[in-house]
Amino acid sequence: MSRPAIIVFNVSGVATARRAADAVSGETFGLAGRVDQVDRTFEDSSALVAELFRAGRPIVGVCAAGILVRLVAPLLQDKRAEPPVLAVSDDGALVVPLLGGLVGGDALARSLANALGGTAAITGAGARRFGVILEAPPEGYVLANPDDAKSVTARLLAGERARLEGGAPWIRDSDLPLDAEGRVLLRVDASATAAPAEGLLYRPKVVLAEFNRPDEATLVRLDEALARLEIAPEALALATAPEGAPIHHRFVERLAERGIPLRVVASRIEQGELLHGEPGLRIHRFAEPVSPDAFGRALGRVTVVGLGPGERDWLTPEASAALDRASDLVGYEVYLAMVPERPGQRRHGSDNRVEIERARAALVLAGQGREVAVVSSGDAGIFGMAAAVMEALAAEPARWPNVTVEVAPGVSAMQAAAARLGAPLGHDFAVISLSNLLKPWEIIAKRLEAAARADFVLALYNPTSRSRQPQFEAALDVLRRHRAPETVVALARNVGREGESLTIITLGALDPNDVDMRTLVLVGSSRSRVFARADGRPWMFTPRVYEAAPASETQEPLAL
């Protein structure tokens, strides 16, 4: 289950929200202007709930149930795929699962009620009467015919009795009306049999597939072997691959599509009954459902996460999900501080000038089966940590055969600044870093010269520092050789963070002392323009049609 989101609308519910978040490792969201002491604030409750719901995050509202009902109603489509939604009274006395009982909502309600000293107000008739939800078996079992669960539950509630075939302690120990002569059949069977006409069929996850050749071809042979053995594919609990073996990405993708966990093991599997053996593949069967966590370790993963400029509303759902699932966060300490702390999550901070070492450290952690998020401000693929991770990976590809690497894009500094300013990047533009830490100044000057001559809009990153002031002045000399003094320039500093400032000026009036390392410099093309909004503040834009009139010759410095 994804990290629960605890939403609170009034200060009276903050204490309960924080206790609930602590109990389930959740993240708190508070209505801006009313609530503080939360992880994130929001202004538009409909937009927030829609974002969380579509991201699959359980939603717990410390509020009246009706508020949540109205907020989620337009979003409902598939009860088996949507996250739980719960309402909690502001004193924590009542926890009401509104949606998602089939996907852990009732269990989450009980956990919260225990932590808050309240009551889980579970209203499902089957759950209250029998102590189980037949449509939502516990981990280790899969219901083969879920569409029949509603009618079967209704029959049992109406007084009919059930007959259990096969081992299922969760059914045997429940309050279901069990009878050896019952008409409603509850069958637990891993074999490829059809569901009973008057009952339910549960597949216990008792089969393990041991791959010594983890590729697509061997996966096809697994399907063929299961068919010969007359074992249902749903009975497959996990697949294993040997430590150090190259695992084909298609193999990993196909297992993920089927919802089959993959574990890396150090030695052959000796447990269980060996049903099938051939080069590259062995199939084992166990008497009881097996947990994937009992075997080896999961594949490690490194996700390089673009945090955006700093404003939480600019953090993408994909990036947020990567941060939520991470066991370890790796990054420059300043960027790690932008991520709210989460219980149990380990942080590995370092200096800004050790990118390759940081990337290798992340790969080492992932090689141990950890879920690692490498954080970078803005977009991680633009002058960020994504390239460093790729460099480290390319240098030793054979060292990381069992590590998956992904990149979650973020809102870049130039996108954020452009959005604040209007549309300065509305036509062709070039992005150049003026830092000479990783490339010589001669290359920077050559590229700057070419871009300035070509009349691109320019986004200049890392314009200056205490040790590089003369280089920014040299960059201005290059620009002024090819651009008119009245060319529009925007200085965007700390966009999305405390101390944000935006200033529109001209190239001729630009003073290098007004620029520092936290400033993004946007230099307009000959067609970039500025005009006043209704409130007197300026908009900057570059027309989409290049034949538009050139910039005004009387641009005065303007502060937004």
UniProtKB/TrEMBL annotation:
<protein>
    <submittedName>
        <fullName>Cobalt-precorrin 5A hydrolase/precorrin-3B C17-methyltransferase</fullName>
        <ecNumber>2.1.1.131</ecNumber>
        <ecNumber>3.7.1.12</ecNumber>
    </submittedName>
</protein>
<dbReference type="InterPro" id="IPR014776">
    <property type="entry name" value="4pyrrole_Mease_sub2"/>
</dbReference>
<dbReference type="InterPro" id="IPR000878">
    <property type="entry name" value="4pyrrol_Mease"/>
</dbReference>
<dbReference type="InterPro" id="IPR021744">
    <property type="entry name" value="CbiG_N"/>
</dbReference>
<keyword id="KW-0489">Methyltransferase</keyword>
<dbReference type="InterPro" id="IPR051810">
    <property type="entry name" value="Precorrin_MeTrfase"/>
</dbReference>
<feature type="domain" description="Cobalamin synthesis G N-terminal">
    <location>
        <begin position="48"/>
        <end position="125"/>
    </location>
</feature>
<dbReference type="GO" id="GO:0043779">
    <property type="term" value="F:cobalt-precorrin-5A acetaldehyde-lyase activity"/>
</dbReference>
<keyword id="KW-0378">Hydrolase</keyword>
<dbReference type="InterPro" id="IPR014777">
    <property type="entry name" value="4pyrrole_Mease_sub1"/>
</dbReference>
<dbReference type="Pfam" id="PF00590">
    <property type="entry name" value="TP_methylase"/>
</dbReference>
<keyword id="KW-0949">S-adenosyl-L-methionine</keyword>
<dbReference type="InterPro" id="IPR038029">
    <property type="entry name" value="GbiG_N_sf"/>
</dbReference>
<dbReference type="GO" id="GO:0030789">
    <property type="term" value="F:precorrin-3B C17-methyltransferase activity"/>
</dbReference>
<dbReference type="InterPro" id="IPR035996">
    <property type="entry name" value="4pyrrol_Methylase_sf"/>
</dbReference>
<dbReference type="GO" id="GO:0009236">
    <property type="term" value="P:cobalamin biosynthetic process"/>
</dbReference>
<feature type="domain" description="Tetrapyrrole methylase">
    <location>
        <begin position="301"/>
        <end position="510"/>
    </location>
</feature>
<comment type="pathway">
    <text>Cofactor biosynthesis; adenosylcobalamin biosynthesis.</text>
</comment>
<keyword id="KW-0808">Transferase</keyword>
<keyword id="KW-0169">Cobalamin biosynthesis</keyword>
<dbReference type="InterPro" id="IPR006363">
    <property type="entry name" value="Cbl_synth_CobJ/CibH_dom"/>
</dbReference>
<dbReference type="Pfam" id="PF11760">
    <property type="entry name" value="CbiG_N"/>
</dbReference>
<dbReference type="GO" id="GO:0032259">
    <property type="term" value="P:methylation"/>
</dbReference>
